[in-house]
Amino acid sequence: MKRDSRLSLVLHALLHMAERDDPMTSDDLATCLMTNPVVVRRTMAFLREAGIVASARGHAGGWRITADLSTVSLRQLHDALGEPAIFAVGHRNAAPACLVEQAVNAALDQTFAEAEALLLARFGEITLADLSADFALRYAALVQQKEP
């Protein structure tokens, strides 16, 4: 089953954008993300609609973050992307006549709902500023490691 990796892609793009003073073009972001600029534009459009990024055309154009990193949570980004399914696991049969399969489906439904609620709550606690700070620590450690 194919995974929806848009949240990961968006986080990656936003952290690259946060490290730059200038806007980043779709081509620049596509290079960073190893994807196609069309994928970048299509995905970033969701964030533009949510007021998280803005885009400008022309020579000095590109994408830039308009929201404060400390106010944007992973949950907001997940929601902006259209609330993609959290789990790729599903029922063998959505409306089974078999009572055993009905019991299995009920248990799976309840468990998935509980797990999704926990995950989305945690997404609400993590901000772009948190990820940016983690990146900064990792980068500083790498630089320190390379110094003689």
Automatic annotation (TrEMBL):
InterPro entries, alphabetized: Tscrpt_reg_Rrf2, WH-like_DNA-bd_sf, WH_DNA-bd_sf
Lineage top rank: taxon: Bacteria
GO molecular function: DNA-binding transcription factor activity
Gene3D superfamilies registered for this protein in UniProt: Winged helix-like DNA-binding domain superfamily/Winged helix DNA-binding domain
SUPFAM superfamilies the record matches: Winged helix' DNA-binding domain
A GO-annotated cellular component: cytosol
Record-linked PANTHER family: HTH-TYPE TRANSCRIPTIONAL REGULATOR YWGB-RELATED (PTHR33221:SF15), WINGED HELIX-TURN-HELIX TRANSCRIPTIONAL REGULATOR, RRF2 FAMILY (PTHR33221)
Protein name per the record: Transcriptional regulator
Organism listed in the record: Pararhodobacter oceanensis
